[in-house]
Amino acid sequence: MRKCFYQAAEASGAVLVECKNVATAVEYIARHAAGAVLLPASPSCERVNLAEQLRRAGLDLLPVAREHAAEAAAGVTSTCFAIADTGTLVLESTAEDVRLASTLPTRHFILLDQRKIVADGLAAVEPLRQMHQQNPRNYIAYITGPSRTADIERVLTIGVHGPKELYILLLGDWSSDLLEM
User: Fold this and answer.
1) Whole-prediction pTM value?
2) Which of 123, 148, 165, 170 could make an SS bond with 119 (beta carbons 3.0 to 4.6 A apart)?
3) 179 lies in a domain?
């Protein structure tokens, strides 16, 4: 299943990076962020004090708010789970700060626990059902590769409606809960 996800995600234009631990992921983000970062609050990120680790790595963390979003070079989020056959990441993005961090900066870094990869859309039904039972009015984002469109003269353009670059940082012990970001 992991191999299927890796192939589908790479085919969509995402960059996959296997990280042996959170420190490795932080180092990677610090080398590739190319500027200030948006980091929305999430249980997984708070558990490892990711904000402080990114600051210690030399990154400038902006307040996640509309007035600062345009200044950010990168957004860093976690993900609820991923769908292997399409290389899709699923984010619970009801909170505006998650939407800002995952759609406005040029680069999006997503932390994914490899145990949270489900086989296909059918396997995603149950966790999606649980998400909607917890909050019937939530927003769910499905991210498959960098933002792309071909609606302008049918010419494929990357990054018009979201990040031009998508980095999936694969961790082995981040969070196995399919509903937790």
Assistant:
1) 0.92
2) 123
3) no
What region does 164 belong to: left with phi over 0, alpha with psi -120 to 50, or beta? alpha
Among the listed residues 35, 52, 58, the one whose alpha carbon sits nearest the alpha carbon of residue 109: 35
What does the H/E/C string look like for the chain? CHHHHHHHHHHCCCEEEECCCHHHHHHHHHHHCCCCEECCCCHHHHHCCHHHHHHHCCCCEECCCHHHHCCCCEEEEECCEEECCCCEEEEECCCHHHHHHHHCCCEEEEEEEHHHEECCHHHHHHHHHHHHHHCCCCCEEEECCCCEECCCCCCCEECCCCCCEEEEEEECCCCCCCCCC
Looking at the domain assignment, is residue 85 inside a domain? yes
Residue 163 belongs to a domain with what CATH number? 3.40.50.10420
Q: Does residue 93 fall inside a structural domain?
A: yes
Distance (Å, whole) CA 137 – CA 160:
27
Q: What is the pLDDT of residues 72-90, one digit of tens each?
A: 999 999 999 999 999 999 9
Report if residue 181 sits inside a domain.
Answer: no
Is the Cβ–Cβ distance between 87 and 14 less than 8 Å?
yes
